[in-house]
Amino acid sequence: MSLSISLHLLARSPVPGRVKTRLIPALGPEGACDLQRLLLERTLQLPAEGFSQRFLWLDDTPDASLQGLADDLGWTLVEQPVGDLGERMRWISVLGLAESDGVILIGNDCPALDAEYLSGACAALHTQPVVLGPAEDGGYVLLGLRRVHPSLFNAMPWGSDRVLAVTRERLQQLEWSHQLLPVLWDVDRPEDLPRLAALGIRVEV
Predict the structure, then answer these.
(1) 92 within some domain
(2) Is residue 109 part of a domain?
(3) Does residue 155 carry a pLDDT above 90?
(4) What is the CATH number for 161?
(5) How far does the signal peptide extend, from start to end residue (predicted)?
(6) pTM surpassing 0.85?
(7) Taking a C-beta distance cutoff of 8 angstroms, is the pair 131, 178 a contact?
(8) Within 10 A of 199 (CB to CB), how many other CB atoms are there?
(9) Are 108 and 39 in contact (CB under 8 A)?
(10) N or C terminus: which one in the chain shows less Cβ crowding within 10 Å?
């Protein structure tokens, strides 16, 4: 059976001083904003293969450049719903599952997340109700769902090293099986910048 799976990218609009704030001491507000734009543009260029629809959920109005790129690459640009991160993710999952069999949620902070990784997530969703892409810092870089429950999003310790562990505990309580993908790293702190440079992504300070 072939599932229809929609891809949902949650991102912050690149505005100096409001994005990548942990990197501002190393890059400055403009440099951190430039990095956000680079990472976002890189994620938008992931291939569309395997997805029935792709949505870019932004927290603010996009500039013309970002809007144009999203249009050119076939993304539907939507404003994020209100609420904390968990509430926004829950709503996006519910809305996505109203139109497709499965949803995959990602951010733009993980440059190691590539077409092969997304393909693996889609394959996992054909056999499991939930797929998780673990992050080195204890969170996750990808969440795939074929069903939704509020406990996966409510009162989660977002931003901590417990997010993945708590999510798996709650899946166990729901008796929902899940598959883990390989562990990836995301860009959050100044010590991540050398790894980013090794991928050919550099930001002028």
Answers:
(1) yes
(2) yes
(3) yes
(4) 3.90.550.10
(5) none
(6) yes
(7) yes
(8) 11
(9) yes
(10) N
